[in-house]
Design a protein that fits this description.
Length: 453
């Protein structure tokens, strides 16, 4: 796919935006902190280079240059977070160098000035991108009709990138099917039979069509496969990476340190929320629930109670729906802000959970998912976590199959660096209201009604 992020345009964009951000920081440092930090010339150069490095890394983590691949609102939000994280980091660096707590107002004014310049520049770049890269003619080729309506509506929502002209069945006449492909610039495949998809992909590749394929479980696994040469024949080599003892020790150490810091920093919030929830209806503030973690082992998960005490008086385990009347007034607030998840840092400290990993499901709901998707249990190959790939790119009501794909992608590509990146990206989830959307009314799990039939 033609993409600004892979060409010269994005390079110029990065240079322009980073220079704007750096200029505002340099001016602000000279105005507010010049006397506090009387460095020689090269001292200021090193500080600027350190700041530039933090801006670049943060922009990569929060995908600030995803023009053409993300909504403008998401890009602007990414810049807000990127600059916030970078400025906080640089502020503490300056405090360490000065051996004192410096005034915060200087960095606050620098931050405001940076945002005031970055936002209009990003809006201009986004408009320029779509002017140079207008929406492409697209078709959707489907096999089974399962989730066709949902899939096609998601593609059509990307109206700045795609203009869906036809939705055709894989069983259409070959000549007619190829005519549709010839008239399109982008081709989407949904549940197409492997044999038909293979030759259609070859045809699209030969005629330079942009192709998009919804992955199957096996393709997710092959995504991280290595290559083994059998004489002169390339063969995919698939083996789940098993972290060594040193990596597991480092992950556990990070879990302990971060959970301790989080508990200390948010202790006042937890005390306040606990008292409010307790005095609202005179019932316990902490909600205990059995969940499943590595190897299918069950443990007790802690959350602030956001629902009425009798929310499951019928004994049926169910997820939260969009308009769930079981949620209390304070419950709406703590769920929206994710404050209800804070007690899980005690789970992490105890070792029953990790900071990063697949979200643990309730045993009853996990069994329902596994009946339809037997591979769903593969998520329990690692310890359950507070956040993960499925929480950042999915939602509370994400379908179990899609959640499985995201969690397997995390497991197969596991690394400490990936964990750190996901922790930083989790901050952006707090600003997305869609991340806490409940399931549809009338359902008890994230399975679609059609999935159960």
């Amino acid at each position: 796919m033609k993409n600004i992020s892979g060409g010269f345009s994005i390079f110029i964009t990065k240079i322009v935006l980073i220079l704007v951000v750096m200029s505002m920081y340099s001016i602000g440092q000279e105005i507010f902190y010049d006397e506090t930090l009387p460095f020689f010339f090269w001292g200021y150069v090193i500080l600027l280079l350190l700041y530039a490095a933090s801006i670049y890394l943060a922009s990569r983590v929060y995908t600030c240059f995803a023009f053409g691949n993300a909504a403008l609102s998401d890009i602007l939000q990414s810049w807000v977070l990127c600059l916030l994280v970078s400025n906080i980091f640089q502020y503490f660096i300056l405090c360490l160098l000065a051996l004192d707590l410096l005034p915060v107002y200087g960095f606050l004014l620098i931050y405001i000035a940076q945002i005031a310049l970055v936002i209009p520049i990003s809006i201009f770049i986004d408009k320029l991108y779509y002017r140079q890269n207008p929406a492409r003619n697209a078709i959707i080729i489907y096999g089974k009709k399962d989730k066709l309506d949902e899939f096609s509506s998601m593609v059509m929502m990307q109206r700045m990138k795609f203009r869906v002209n036809n939705i055709v069945s894989q069983d259409s006449e070959t000549a007619k099917l190829l005519d549709f492909v010839d008239a399109a610039e982008s081709v989407f495949f949904l549940n197409v039979d492997e044999s038909k998809q293979d030759w259609l992909l070859e045809y699209c590749y030969l005629h330079n069509k942009h192709t998009y394929i919804q992955p199957t479980f096996s393709k997710i696994l092959l995504n991280t496969a290595g290559t083994f040469w059998l004489s002169n024949t390339p063969i995919f080599s698939l083996k789940t990476p098993l972290p060594d003892i040193g990596t597991l020790f480092l992950k556990r150490l990070i879990d302990i340190v971060i959970s301790l810091i989080a508990i200390i920093l948010t202790s006042w919030i937890m005390i306040c929320i606990g008292l409010i929830v307790r005095f609202y209806d005179r019932h316990p503030a902490i909600y205990k629930q059995t969940r499943v973690t590595r190897g299918g082992k069950q443990f007790t998960l802690y959350k602030f109670r956001s629902m009425r005490p009798d929310s499951e008086r019928d004994g049926v385990a169910r997820l939260t729906s969009s308009d769930d009347d079981r949620i209390t007034p304070i419950g709406h607030f703590i769920r929206r802000t994710r404050i209800d998840e804070l007690p899980q840092f005690f789970n992490v400290l105890r070792g029953t959970m990790s900071i990063v990993g697949p979200r643990p499901e309730r045993p009853e709901i996990a069994r329902q998912y596994e009946e339809l998707y037997p591979n769903f249990s593969f998520r329990t190959k690692v310890k359950a976590g507070i956040t993960g790939l499925a929480q950042i790119y999915g939602r509370y009501n994400t379908a179990p199959e899609e959640k499985l794909f995201l969690d397997i992608m995390y497991i197969e590509a596991f690394s400490i660096l990936q964990d750190i990146k996901l922790m930083l990206q989790t901050v952006s989830v707090l600003f997305k209201a869609s991340s806490t959307e409940g399931i549809d009314d009338g359902l008890t799990t994230a399975l679609w009604k059609g999935d159960k039939e």
